[in-house]
Structure to design on (142 residues):
C-alpha cells in the first residue's frame, strides 16, 4: 500500500529516455547511494547526466562482479534483462532472480547455456568447499 517501487521500476525501465524521468532517476540513484555505507567515499554530488550510466553500474564489492550482469542492467532494486527487457526483482544486487529468469526464458541462447554451465560449476565448488571444511572441523572419535 503506497509503495512506489513498481512505478519507479516501470518508469526507469520503459521511459528513461524522457528528460523528466532521467532526472528523477538520477535524483533517486543519488539518494540511494548516499544511504549506502559502502559508497560513502564516492563524490555523489559530482555525478552529472553523462556520468550516471557509469554510476549505475558501480560495483560496491571489491571482488569481481557476477557474470550475470553481462545479461542485465541494474536499475535500483531491479535488473532489466538485455535479451527481452523484462524487469526482474534484484534486491540489494542479488542475482538469484536474474539467474532464474535467464535460465527459464533464454536457455536457448548459447551464451546463457555457457553461463548456466559456469554457474553450476561455481555452485558445486562452493558446496564441495563447505563439505571439505566440515570434515576438517569434525572431531575424530577414537
Amino acid at each position: 500500500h503506497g509503495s512506489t517501487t513498481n512505478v519507479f521500476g516501470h518508469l526507469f525501465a520503459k521511459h528513461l529516455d524522457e528528460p523528466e524521468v532521467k532526472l528523477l532517476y538520477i535524483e533517486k540513484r543519488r539518494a540511494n547511494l548516499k544511504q549506502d555505507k559502502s559508497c560513502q567515499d564516492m563524490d555523489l554530488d559530482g555525478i552529472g547526466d553523462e556520468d550516471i550510466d557509469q554510476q549505475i553500474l558501480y560495483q560496491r564489492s571489491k571482488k569481481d562482479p557476477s557474470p550475470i550482469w553481462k545479461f542485465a542492467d541494474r536499475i535500483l532494486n531491479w535488473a532489466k534483462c538485455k535479451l527481452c527487457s523484462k524487469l526482474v526483482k534484484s534486491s540489494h544486487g542479488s542475482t538469484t532472480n536474474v539467474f532464474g529468469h535467464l535460465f527459464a526464458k533464454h536457455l536457448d541462447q548459447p551464451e546463457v547455456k555457457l553461463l548456466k554451465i559456469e554457474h553450476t560449476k561455481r555452485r558445486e565448488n562452493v558446496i564441495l568447499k563447505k563439505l571439505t571444511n566440515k570434515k576438517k572441523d569434525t572431531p575424530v572419535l577414537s
In short: Residues 110-137 form the longest helix (28 residues). The first strand starts at residue 72 and ends at 75. The radius of gyration is 19 Å. Strands lie at 72-75, 78-81, 87-89.
